[in-house]
Every structure is written in C-alpha cells, then in structure tokens.
Amino acid sequence: MSAIEDTSDGPTPPIKVLFTLHPGFDTMDFVGPLEVLSYAQHNIKDASTKAFKCAFVSHSEHTVSAQGCSFRAHMDYEDAHDTLSEYDALIIPGGGIESLLKTATDQTEPLALIKAYTALQKADPTKERNLISICTGSLLLAHQGILQGLAATTHPDAYTKLEILCQEAARAGTLEQTDVMEERYVVNNARFALGENEDENPFILRKRPDARRKSIARKGSNAWKEGNKRRESINRRAGLKLGGLRVITTGGITCGLDAALYLVGAMVSTESAEEVSRLMQYEWKKGVTVDGIDV
Q1: Which value, in Å, is the radius of gyration of the alpha carbons in the chain?
Q2: pLDDT tens across 158-200, in order?
Q3: Residue 288, Cβ density class (10 Å: 0-12 exposed, 13-18 middle, ≥19 buried)
Q4: pTM, two decimal places
Q5: Residues 36, 54 contacting (CB under 8 angstroms)
Q6: DSSP state of 100
Q7: Which residue, 201, 178, 200, is CA-closest to 247?
Q8: What is the helix (H) or strand (E) element at residue 220, kind and residue range?
Q9: Taking a C-beta distance cutoff of 8 angstroms, is the pair 28, 254 a contact?
Q10: Taking a C-beta distance cutoff of 8 angstroms, is the pair 221, 100 a contact?
Q11: CA dist., res. 152 & res. 165, Å (int)
Q12: How many CA atoms lie within 13 A of 17 on its CB side?
C-alpha cells in the first residue's frame, strides 16, 4: 500500500500545475521548475507517489522558446479558462515579455488567464492556490496590478521596469506600492506554523531587515489538503490580500529552481524538497517570505 494512503480520505490527490507558454519564453524558466516538480514525491521512498501533475497551455499546439526549442501544449487558452479552478498552481515563465506587453490588451494571454486565476482565489478562498512567475514573468503580474501591496522580485536587469509597471498599476488602482526586492525569490501569503511570537520567527519578513531572513515551507504532505478544509484556515486566508493567493516571484532564470523547491516544500514536505535537491545535485538557495498565516 502506498504511504500516502494513510488518511480517511484515501490517497493524497496530485497537485495540479498549469504552465503558460508564449512565443519567445525562456526555456530554463519553464523546464527548470518542471524538472523539480517531476521529481517530487509524497513519499521519497515510493516512486508511485508522484506529487505533481503538470500541464501546459499555449495559443497553438507548438510554441518555440527563445532558445529555439519547440514545446507541445496540452490545451489552448479557452480550455485553460474552462478548467482553471482545477489547478493548485499557475506558473508563468519569463522571456519575450517586452514584445508581449507592447501589444497587450485585457484579453491578451497569458495576461487574461493570470487575472482570472487571481479573481478565482478572491471569489473562492477555500482552496490553496499558488501564482508563480519566473524571472521577467513578474512583469506580467505587475501589468495586471496583482503585485500592489505585495513584495516582488525579477531578473536584476528588469528591476527598473518592474518598479515602473508597479507604479503605473498603483496609480491606476488602489495606490498601494510594491516592494521590489533583490532576492532569489519572494513569497507572499505563505502558510506555515508561525509560533507564539511572530517577531522571533526567522522565516517571516514584515519589514526588510539588514540581513535577509531565509524562507522555509511548512512540513507535511497532507498539510495543504487539510488546510483547505479547516474553517479557521479558510477565514484567515480570505483575510489576506488576493484571498490568500500565494504569490511567488523569482529572480533570473535559475532562481526558478529555488522557487519550485519552495513549492515542493510548501505543498508536499521539506523532506521531499531536500530529496529533489539531492537528486538534481543542486543546492537549494532560499529566498524570503514576507508574510504568512498559521494554518
């Protein structure tokens, strides 16, 4: 019997992740996190307990990256909108963002899908959802006004562009500013045990200190599933910005590996994330968590 079949509700369901693809996206922004998630298991000793099920969405069947690689999508954006509520995470790779934004409208994809996913969480905070941008993918979140009142990061060469987009969104929206940080990744609306005194918790960053505080995920492969059921968790999540949508932005390219490992730690277990890191012979470099709730 699988080790995940130890709850009254049966096996832990797969964590469903949707990657958006657009012409000229950066290959590593996509395949890096995909590689991490593909290795993650609920039970690191049982290969049958794969933790994530990933799908790709694009305008066309085949999408070519900036490096000339062609990837086949599982669905188009119309299908993605129809099934969006099924996904626990939406991941937006960077690359080719400037040209995409030049002709962007409210209906441009993946901008429309990002907005719809965010609205879904605000309307239904009973589910734990994650919105993750890799590298310059954060510029799309900024364009949609999603980063207002949050902290974020991006590729170092795009810090100024991110700040400008966030300022424009603030003027057009609630006037809430975005704290652009120089980090590997930045997590908003995290879920983990905070302890009795949040000021003494080294994994929470409410105001930027002189030294970085490293982020860490909560432990336990069933924690995310149970947190979706508990009334107090739902109420606390609903009280956070964006209905408690966990928003993760990353620095350049390889930082997507680190953020993906964080997601494994948050949704599966720290043990699983560390095992993936070992298998990939990659040192997990931690980012920062700027807020959180105790679930």
Answers
A1: 18
A2: 999 999 999 999 998 878 999 999 999 999 987 654 455 555 5
A3: buried
A4: 0.85
A5: no
A6: H
A7: 178
A8: none
A9: yes
A10: no
A11: 12
A12: 25
